[in-house]
């Protein structure tokens, strides 16, 4: 008998749930009566978007090891940033009897038929860091405060230019400074949150003339970077330099939503003769923001090339994903701390959001090394093990 365990005690009522649970007990993959099952008989499918970015590898490994510590069997797959591959991997997880799914989607709207199949079999689905959109078949969302990430990036850009201090208080420096704007992949729900958050901080300084987007490309559509690709970002930065800075003017700041994009931007700027530090002449490296504290970018920050990144502790995100999966498997509701913000187009998905931290050069030691996210040796080498 198929029992939709997501409904749990809340929707069914305790006595009905108990009656239904008593009818279950078919073991792993049956999606019934998981509360009584031994964790080792339960399997959790973990679908990550790509291995080209260091952060998703860390996410996958953190989720896998924490689930295994809790005794579960784990099927971890990376989809190579290819939407059909991710769909096929999730299909396979369902066929093989997954009892819960944790999914970081490549395209937030592209998994509807897989998620319908999951719902039909009562498999709870946890949306990991990126909200799955346009379906009711997503149960819970674990992420960071994504609008806040954008605000922090906007403030970091202003701080890097000397326009505000790190708290966002104006310093009286009025430029004008030339900036360019980059956004993430439009099929990722987070991209809009990051861009809107950043623009909420930056826009007043564009309006008062302190900042000038010299290319005129100020919409998220113009600034977007499909699949968050480093190469695509490098090409766009090269195009911007050619089209808007061939009159001797220089770029002073670049809003970048993600470290991989920042590295593409940096390569384009270095190829165009921009120097590694703010002291270099005649073209100092602009103030460039980022996100994820990827080790290669942390080294660039240590070396004074990239200005800042936003640290999102993926160990804590993995913990929340594991806690949510465990709750569902124990036929309970996971704890949410936001039940308003994340409307996926069909419903508001309950979420657990984690805080974020801005990392400038001076914060590498206190934020990243003292928390043992990286060792000092890894930062010096620009590589983690
Ligand atoms: C987003 C995520 C960012 C960054 C980006 C590119 O969904 O929130 O932290 O990792 O993807 O991978």
Oligomer: single chain
Number of domains: 2
- What summary fits the major beta sheet? 6 strands, parallel
CATH architecture of the largest domain: 3-Layer(aba) Sandwich
Q: How many DSSP helices? A: 14
State the shape: elongated
In short:
The chain is α/β, with parallel strands linked by helices. Helices cover 41% and strands 13% of the residues.
Describe this structure in words.
The protein has 385 residues and is of the alpha/beta class. It folds into two domains: 9-138 and 314-354, 3-Layer(aba) Sandwich (Rossmann fold), CATH 3.40.50.2300; 146-311 and 377-381, Response regulator (Rossmann fold). Helix content is 41%, strand content 13%. It has 14 helices and twelve strands. Strand 1, helix 3 (54-69) and strand 2 form a beta-alpha-beta unit. It is elongated and about 70 Å long. The protein starts with 7 loop residues before the first helix and ends with a helix. Beta-D-galactopyranose is lined by residues 53, 55, 129-130, 184, 188, 190, 228, 258, 291-292, 312.
């Amino acid at each position: 008998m198929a029992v939709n365990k997501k409904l749990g005690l809340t929707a069914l009522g305790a006595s009905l749930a108990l009656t239904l649970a008593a009818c279950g007990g078919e073991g792993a993959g049956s999606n019934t009566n998981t509360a009584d099952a031994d964790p080792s008989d339960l399997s959790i499918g973990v679908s990550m978007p790509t291995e080209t970015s260091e952060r998703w590898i860390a996410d996958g490994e953190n989720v896998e090891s924490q689930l295994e510590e809790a005794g579960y069997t784990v099927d971890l797959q990376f989809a190579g940033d290819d939407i059909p591959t991710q769909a096929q991997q999730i299909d396979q997880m369902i066929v093989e009897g997954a009892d819960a799914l944790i999914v970081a989607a490549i395209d937030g709207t592209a998994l509807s038929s897989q998620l319908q199949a999951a719902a039909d079999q009562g498999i709870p689905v946890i949306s990991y860091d990126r909200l799955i959109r346009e379906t009711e078949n997503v149960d819970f969302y674990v992420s960071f405060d994504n609008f806040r990430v954008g605000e922090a990036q906007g403030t970091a850009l202003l701080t890097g230019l000397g326009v505000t201090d790190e708290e966002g208080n104006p310093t009286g420096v009025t430029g004008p400074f030339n900036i360019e704007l980059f956004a993430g992949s439009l099929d990722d729900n987070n991209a809009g949150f990051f861009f809107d958050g950043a623009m909420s901080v930056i826009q007043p300084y564009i309006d008062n003339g302190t900042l000038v987007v010299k290319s005129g490309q100020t919409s998220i559509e113009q600034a977007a970077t499909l699949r968050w690709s480093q190469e695509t970002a490098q090409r766009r930065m090269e195009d911007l330099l050619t089209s808007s800075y061939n009159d001797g003017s220089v770029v002073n700041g670049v809003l970048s939503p993600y470290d991989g994009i920042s590295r593409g931007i940096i390569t384009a700027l270095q190829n165009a003769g921009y120097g590694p530090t703010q002291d270099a002449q005649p073209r100092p490296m602009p103030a460039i923001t980022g996100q994820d504290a990827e080790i290669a970018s942390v080294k660039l920050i240590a070396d004074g090339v990239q200005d800042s990144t936003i640290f999102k502790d993926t160990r804590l995100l993995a913990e929340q994903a594991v806690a949510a999966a465990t709750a569902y498997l124990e036929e309970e509701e996971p704890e949410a701390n936001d039940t308003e913000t994340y409307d996926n187009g069909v419903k508001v998905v309950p979420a657990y959001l984690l805080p974020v931290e801005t990392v400038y050069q001076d914060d590498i030691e206190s934020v990243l090394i003292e928390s043992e996210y990286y060792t000092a040796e890894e930062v010096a080498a620009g590589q983690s093990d």
